[in-house]
Amino acid sequence: MSAQPAPSSAASSFRSISVFFPCFNERENLEPLVRQALDVLGKMGLDYEIIIVDDGSTDGTGALADALAAENPRIKVIHHPVNKGYGAALQSGFRAASKELIFYTDGDRQFDLNELPPLLPLIEQYDIVSCYRINRQDGWIRRFNGFAWTRLVCLLFHLKLKDIDCSFKLYKRKIFDGMPLVSTGALIDTEVLARAVRKGYTITQVGVHHYPRRAGKATGAKLRVIARAFYELFKLRNTIVKQKT
Questions:
Q1: Residue 187 to residues 63, 191, 241, Cα–Cα distance (Å)
Q2: The 16-23 sheet, strands edge to edge
Q3: What pTM, to 2 d.p., does this model score?
Q4: What is the number of helices (H) and of strands (E) in the chain?
Q5: Residue 158 structural domain
Q6: Tens digit of pLDDT for each residue in 179-204?
Q7: Residue 44 neighbours by CB distance under 10 Å
Q8: What is the DSSP code (8-state) at residue 239?
Q9: Helix, strand, or coil (residue 14)
């Protein structure tokens, strides 16, 4: 695993990309996010699809997602009837993706999708581009928790990553072929990357800019979310590390 600056965008040997957004109560952020995605993807020269995963939202996110999909056949929507958790939302996105590459970022608009095209040269050389946040725009408690969590899971799963839960990642879709995923909470990023490394896939890292949340409310710091992550962490460690699957 390596960390390096992102190169400038260049022609890609890949012809298609699936982009998905896990969303829970992100109605105010969803439309500008999708509009930006359409603009960025339209300039990349790849066949693409946009997948919105509505994880049981109660604020009208699902209805807005359906309206956006009705406008453009490239947009698809997956609805969870109830909130199943972040990991479950990512699993739905991974399963629904049909293109050669898979990219995801959260529906909170804390990243700039214009930083996606420069990742294409890296995915030519590696199987996964796992980004890290430059100047993370969260409170000090969330920043400290994120740092401590990354250090802990990297120690337990023998990984070398700066920011394991940064929601700006690009994958070759093939890595998910036959990969069992069981995490329904915040451990999902750790599970995917740990399983991928143990299958011999390669990871590189690059920094991307992080921006303050413009609307909506973060849910990742809730105690039940944190407790769920620790429960899954120790449950999965034996499966991933000892069984090497």
A1: 28, 6, 15
A2: 2-3, 203-209, 128-134, 168-172, 101-105, 16-23, 47-55, 75-80
A3: 0.88
A4: 8, 8
A5: 2-6+13-243
A6: 999 999 888 999 999 999 999 999 99
A7: 14
A8: I
A9: coil
For 97-109, the pLDDT digits (tens) are 999 999 999 999 9
Cβ-count burial of 123 within 10 angstroms (0-12 exposed, 13-18 middle, 19+ buried)?
A: buried
Would you tell me how many other CB atoms lie within 10 Å of the CB of residue 127?
A: 18
Q: Residue 231 is encoded by which pair of tokens?
A: 């429960």
Whose structure tokens read 């804390």?
Answer: 110
List all residues 6 or more positions away from 143 whose beta carbon is below 8 Å from its beta carbon: 136
In the chain, pLDDT over 70 holds for what percent of residues?
89
Amino acid at 21: F
Instruction: Look at the chain and report how many structural domains it folds into.
Output: 1
**What residues contact residue 27 under an 8 Å CB cut-off, 6+ apart?**
57, 59, 60, 61, 64, 216
Question: Token digits for 168?
Answer: 């700006």
pLDDT per position as a tens digit, 150-168: 888 888 888 999 999 999 9
Q: Write down the H helix ranges in 126-167.
A: 140-157
What's 95's domain CATH number? Answer: 3.90.550.10
**52 three-class SS:** strand
Parallel, antiparallel or unpaired: strands 128-134 and 168-172: antiparallel
State yes or no: pLDDT of 213 exceeds 60.
Answer: yes
